[in-house]
Amino acid sequence: MKKLLFLLPLILLTASSDLSDVTVDKKIYQVNYSQRFEQPVSLTYESSNRPTNVNRGSMDFYSEPNIKTSDNADYASNVYDKGHLAPAATFSDNEKNLKTTFSYLNCALQNQYLNRGEWRLLEEQERKWDDIEKLIVTVDVKFGEGTILLPTGATVPSGFVKHIHFTKQHVWKCYEFKNIKPTKKWTEHQVVHSH
Length: 195
Hints:
Blueprint: H1 2-18, E1 21-25, E2 29-34, E3 39-47, E4 80-84, H2 95-100, E5 107-111, H3 112-116, H4 118-129, E6 135-142, E7 148-149, E8 155-156, E9 159-166, E10 171-178, E11 190-191
């Protein structure tokens, strides 16, 4: 009996450490990923004036070995898109970079109207800004009021905050979005930078 009591805490410790946050450097972005939420917590990438040489075609998201991420089941029959945090279009300079953006490490459960609307428009604006100067972008994924646990196991974020550092001007622009259908333009989501 004493051996069983001794082993039980080790098993619990191992189980809880299996769902710890992991930090992964994918070269074109760095991500802090929550295995418990099955969602990224924060992700940073550099947006520069890369040429568009390849298109996404039929690429789809893929899992990473030994990391518990969301998967196709989490995005089925609901309002959530597989939202890129590091945009595919920003990394269309070569096939390797583009494919790297399709890792589930770079994928958030994002309201389809946000992903295809104001979030996409802000990404397009970033690509205009990066024609002039390099940007360092960090996306913080929020889990607060509005967070939903799906029956499939992944947690829907409550919102997203995008911090954009303009490296020549040494200024920041920051945009905060709730993970719902937007009711105002992306420009109206600008907030005071607090990163």
